[in-house]
Amino acid sequence: MELQHLPRQTAWDSISQNPISTLRHGVLIALYIIVISVYRLTFHPLAKYPGPWLSKVTDAPGAYHVGQGRLHIETEKAHRQLGTIRPLRNLIVTFSLTF
User: Fold this and answer.
1) CB 80 within 8 A of CB 99
2) 8 A C-beta contact, residue 49 and residue 40
3) Chain-centre distance for alpha carbon 64
4) What is the pLDDT of residues 46-72, one digit of tens each?
5) CA separation for the pair 25, 17 (Å, rounded)
6) What is the pTM of this model?
7) Cβ contacts of residue 51 below 8 Å, gap of 6+?
8) Most buried one in 18, 19, 65, 76, CB count within 10 A?
């Protein structure tokens, strides 16, 4: 009895076989990102505090500054520009008592 070899399936094969499903997932992911962004920019309790919109939506700017080792410097610079209360990341607010 001889063994039959089946063709190997990869993840890319399933994507090419069902592009509608892939498109549906892409639309759902984009819609999720849009809904979260609108919520954080308008309805979130911290939305009323001034600051860069990208910092209100995502943690990317903070992660960049942490990677550069300059988060404390950038936070102080933002406090000098924006005042004593500043959104650091999407769910974190920093307070500065002195300038």
Assistant:
1) yes
2) no
3) 12
4) 888 777 888 888 888 888 988 999 988
5) 14
6) 0.64
7) 78, 82, 86, 87
8) 65
